[in-house]
Structure formats: C-alpha cells, structure tokens
C-alpha cells in the first residue's frame, strides 16, 4: 500500500531506497523460542555477555578520567551493583532454562521487573535510579547483540538503504557514517536538534518528527524521501518513482553547478564582502569545508570528540585534533568552541539525569563545574594556537561572572604553559556565543570583554520561545521569524557593529537560504553553516544588493503579524 507521511525537513536532497528499521532501544527486542538442545548454548551466550560487561566495567574503572575520579567511581560502583543484582544476572538464566526463550527476551523481561521495583520507591533519588538500571541492561544487551549471528543489519550496498528509527541521538548518527545510509528518517526530533545538525553535516537527506513512521513502515519497503519538503512516500507507484528519479538527478546537477562557485569571493552586488564559514564536528570534516569553498571554520563543536567512546580524549589527543584542523585550514580562521556537553550530548557512561537538561548543567556551566576537564581542553587549545589561526569560543554564556571565571581559567592556563615553556599564541581571540536571551539583552557588557561574538540561533530561539528544540511535539512552535527573535538578533548585530566587535551567526538560520537576505539586512556580514550549504548561500549573496534590503528589513522588524512577516520576507527574497 502506498502512503505519504509529512515530517520536518532537516537536511535536503532526495533519496530513494529500501527501508531498514532500527530497533532503537534495548526494549525493542525479538522474542523467540529455542529447541531444548540449544538452551545450554543460550545460557552460555548470556553468561558470556555478562562477563564481557563486567570486564568492560573493570576497564572503565582503570581508565577512568582523572577529572571526574570520585564521580566516575561512584557511578561505576552503582552500575556494577545493578549488574550483579540477581534480577539481572541470575533471573534471565533461570527464565531461559524454564521458558526456552532467547536471552534478549529474558533480559528485557527481567529489566522491566527491576525497573518496576525502582518505580515503587518513595525516595526520589532511588526512583530515578531506574535510568541506571536501563543503562546497565542496555550495555548488557549490546554485548548480547554483539554475539555472532546478532550483528545489527548493516546498510546494504546493492541497494540504497534508508534508516527508519523512532529516534537517533547525534552520537548514533556519527556512528552510522561508515554505513553510508542514503537517508535518515525519525519519528522524534526537531529541525535544530543536534541529530538534525549532524545529518546536515553528513550531507545526508533527513526528515524528522514523522511521529508514526517506525510503526507504519515495514522492513524493505520502498521509500522516497524528499528532504526539501519533509515528505516521505512509502511504496510509491511507478509514475511517482519515475518523477522523483528525475527530480533527484536535477537536484544533483544543481549541486554540481553550485560547486563551481567554490573559489569565488562572496561579495554582494554592491561590493560588500561577506564571510561564509563552515561548522564542523570532527577533524575529518575539513576536507568538505574546503571542497565547498568556506573561508574558515566558524564553529568546531569540539564536544563531538567525546561521543561514542569508552575512553575519553585526553589533552594530548585533543591537542592533535585541534592542531590537525588548524593546519588543515592553512592559516584560515578556525573557531573552536569549548565543550558544549550536557543536554543531548552526553559523555558515554557518565550520563547525567536532569529534569530539564537544556536548562541544566550544560556547555560553559558544565566546564566550570569540571575544572580538570576544562583545564585539559584549554591547555590543548592554547597549545594548538601555535600551529594555525585558532580562536576560542565559549558556549551558552548567561552572566558576566561566568565569563570572568572563564577568563581566569584561561589566564591560569597560560601561566602554567609559560612556566613549562610551551609556545602558544598569547593574542588568541576569545569569543562568546549569544544563545541565551539574557546575554543578548546585555550584549554590550559581553562585547566589551570579548574579541568576537557568535549568535547561536538554535539555542537562542529555544530559550526565547521556551521550546525544546529536540521535542517534535512543539516543533511547530519553533519560529526563527518570531518578532522577539528578530528583535534580539537585530539588537545583538547592531550593538556589535556599533562597538566594532565582529559578529557572526553560527546557528542553523545562517544556512537557511530564505534568511540570508534578512540577516544581511540586519547588518550581518559573517555566516557559519554546514559545509554543503556554503555554495547555495554564496549564490544568494552574489545576487544581493545591500542598499535594496534596508527598507524591507525595517518593515519586517516593525511587523507583528506572522503572515505579514512572511509576506515581507517573500518580497525580500524575490
Ligand atoms: C546554536 O545553538 O545555534 C549553536 C550553533 O550551537 P548548537 O547547535 O551546537 O547548540
Ligand atoms: Mg547552542
């Protein structure tokens, strides 16, 4: 049966392929019965997974990061205790023996029982430990699934494969890179979630917020994903399939043509220079930055170095990563953001439970609370400044006291490098991200203490409109054109321009073609976006005459009706 689902477009392009359904959580496991003669083997398989998980805990303990020793030990101890709880370590064995079911099913059933027990606790702390139970069970389950015969279904290479999942974390997506899926589809998620951002940086078409795709689509169904419109067509008829094949070729041809602009300067028709930089997540992304003609890196999300790994990167590994990017960019600016950990980007095995993760210990708050982690990063960053044009960017500043503390950290790190005779660029530029309305409203105070500013519209919109950017239920309310957002943007850009402090936008708005002229009209001259979008934005800049933007931009700022704002924007882009 053919049907169409509408979601939120997050990464454009057209993909045609076969569905592969991803079993997202450990609780989605197969249930099957085993003949009697296989029961012993199944119990041995469970025991082997148990042993492998114990060994993993032991190795985590011996390699624990020094900056979080006490915390990490406590967390490991708790997880080890949970693993050794008879409900997880013994009951599944008994269930396999008695019911002849597979080990995964036995584990799932016993995990549910244990979670239910934790749910009964009056004490909030104990009740919250059910998350730890699930994490331990997932770790054990992964070991089980890793046994021969249970490898996750990789992308097929004979046909294009489209991954369909309930939800994917940014870490999941990074892991899938080598599988080269043709597209990603998820039921959860919003347009500026970090999952969406990674999909864009992989140049892989992606639609999120589909709500029921995982339920309605079957393995191997033929799918057409229109990343531009956010549409997913399931089992299309021949005519639709042929139409989309044509559209796909046209889209690819257009991208090829745009790439010819690679070496052109991004000047407006009236001769103003606009800088188009790229956002990256990994050192390997530098090649794509150059391929697309970006003239610098406006945002290196350094926290991605932490995702998907058991052993965390130490100072040396970070230094090598930052140096590689700086050298790879041959003297062009490389803006490295200090870790924006927390919320949807958690260190594996050290996840923090928080009622409101986006409002919790995230970004600079997290770093200031983890001095050893922060110091190691600052040392690595400063050392790398000797090898290229590195700038340091601080995320999620909300108060000047946070900035002052950060400046003290940097001064102390410089002092210790001086003491060791290690070279670094003493004049390194320090910038701050404007992501919280409080920072935008008091921008002058920050601007006076910083060398540059970068507006993170993804979070600025999230915090201004009180809309969780990862929550598909409120994704329709996420509105970059909300008058409050536009006023904050205008305020920050004009204040920075007046003070002569360089300002850029590095949130997803910067790569959204329909906002290019609006941002130029607000006075922005520096944009940073996912690499693949640089050629399209460049083309828009090349066809823009700045003096023609002023009147309409002012009208947009004065308008309060959403429809009127959209109509005016249409005229600006005509
Ligand atoms: C932003 O918030 O706009 C931003 C660029 O940072 P991130 O998307 O990584 O939160
Ligand atoms: Mg942000």
Textual characterization of the structure:
This protein has 574 residues and is an alpha/beta fold. It has 3 domains: 3-23 and 150-257, Glucose Oxidase, domain 1 (3-Layer(bba) Sandwich); 36-145, PtsI, HPr-binding domain (Enzyme I, Chain A, domain 2); 260-572, Alpha-Beta Barrel (TIM Barrel). It contains 24 helices and 16 strands. The protein has helices at 39-62, 69-84, 86-89, 91-99, 103-119, 124-128, 130-145, 170-176, 194-201, 213-216, 238-259, 286-291, 315-328, 363-369, 371-384, 400-420, 437-441, 443-449, 457-465, 483-499, 513-521, 534-542, 550-558, 562-573; strands at 3-6, 8-11, 14-21, 161-165, 183-186, 206-208, 222-226, 231-234, 275-280, 297-301, 334-337, 390-394, 429-434, 452-455, 503-505, 526-530. Residues 147-154 have low confidence and may be disordered. Bound molecules: phosphoenolpyruvate (PEP) and magnesium ion.
Summarize, please.
The chain is α/β, with parallel strands linked by helices.
The kinds of small molecule bound in this structure are: phosphoenolpyruvate, magnesium ion
Percent range for β-strand residues: 5-15%
**Regions with little confidence, pLDDT below 50 for 5+ residues:** 147-154
What Rg do the Cα atoms give? Answer: 25 Å
Termini gap? 40 Å
């Amino acid at each position: 049966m053919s049907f169409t689902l509408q979601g939120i477009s997050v990464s454009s392009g057209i993909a045609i392929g076969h569905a592969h359904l991803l079993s997202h959580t450990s609780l989605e496991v197969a249930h099957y019965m085993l003949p009697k003669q296989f029961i012993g083997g199944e119990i041995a398989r469970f025991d082997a997974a148990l042993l492998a998980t114990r060994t993993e805990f032991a190795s985590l303990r011996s390699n624990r990061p020094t900056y979080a020793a006490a915390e990490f030990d406590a967390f490991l101890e708790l997880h080890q205790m949970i693993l050794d709880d008879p409900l997880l370590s013994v009951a599944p064995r008994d269930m396999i023996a008695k019911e002849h079911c597979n080990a995964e099913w036995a584990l799932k059933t016993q995990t549910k029982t244990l979670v239910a027990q934790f749910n009964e606790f009056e004490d909030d702390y104990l009740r919250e430990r059910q998350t730890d139970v699930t994490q331990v069970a997932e770790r054990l389950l992964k070991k089980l699934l890793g046994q021969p015969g249970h490898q996750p279904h990789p992308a097929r290479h004979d046909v294009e494969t489209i991954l369909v999942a309930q939800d994917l974390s940014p870490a999941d997506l990074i892991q899938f890179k080598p599988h080269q899926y043709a597209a990603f589809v998820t039921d959860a998620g919003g347009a500026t979630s970090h999952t969406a951002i990674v999909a864009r940086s992989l140049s892989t078409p992606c639609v999120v917020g589909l709500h029921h795709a995982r339920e309605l689509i079957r393995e191997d169904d033929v799918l057409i994903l229109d990343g531009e419109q956010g549409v997913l067509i399931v089992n299309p008829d021949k005519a639709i399939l042929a139409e989309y094949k044509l559209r796909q070729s046209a889209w690819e041809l257009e991208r090829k043509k745009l790439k010819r602009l690679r070496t052109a300067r991004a000047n407006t028709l009236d001769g103003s220079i606009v800088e188009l930089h790229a956002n990256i997540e990994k050192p390997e992304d530098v090649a794509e930055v150059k391929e697309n003609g970006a003239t610098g890196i406006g945002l290196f999300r350094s926290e991605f170095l932490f995702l998907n790994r058991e052993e965390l990167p130490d100072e040396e590994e970070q230094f090598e990563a930052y140096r590689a990017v700086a050298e790879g960019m041959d003297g062009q600016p490389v803006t490295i953001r200090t870790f924006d950990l927390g919320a949807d980007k958690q260190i594996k095995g050290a996840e923090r439970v928080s009622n409101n993760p986006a409002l919790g210990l995230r970004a600079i708050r997290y770093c200031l609370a983890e001095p050893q982690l922060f110091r190691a990063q600052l040392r690595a960053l400063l050392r790398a400044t000797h090898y290229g044009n590195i700038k340091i960017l601080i995320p999620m500043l909300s108060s000047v006291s946070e900035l002052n503390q950060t400046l003290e950290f940097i001064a102390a790190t410089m002092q210790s490098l001086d003491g060791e005779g290690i070279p670094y660029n003493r004049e390194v530029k320090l910038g701050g991200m404007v992501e919280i309305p409080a920072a935008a409203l008091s921008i002058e105070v920050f601007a006076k203490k910083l060398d540059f500013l970068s507006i993170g519209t993804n979070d600025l919109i999230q915090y201004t409109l009180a809309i969780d950017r990862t929550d598909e239920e409120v994704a329709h309310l996420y509105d970059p054109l909300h008058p409050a957002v536009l006023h904050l943007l205008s305020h920050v850009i004009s204040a920075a321009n007046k003070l002569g402090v360089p300002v850029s936008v590095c949130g997803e708005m910067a790569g959204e073609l329909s906002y290019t002229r609006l941002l130029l009209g607000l006075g922005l001259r520096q944009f940073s976006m996912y690499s693949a979008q640089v050629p399209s934005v460049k083309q828009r800049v090349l066809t823009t005459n700045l003096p023609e933007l002023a009147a309409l931009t002012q009208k947009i700022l004065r308008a309060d009706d959403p429809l009127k704002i959209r109509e005016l924007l249409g005229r600006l882009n005509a």
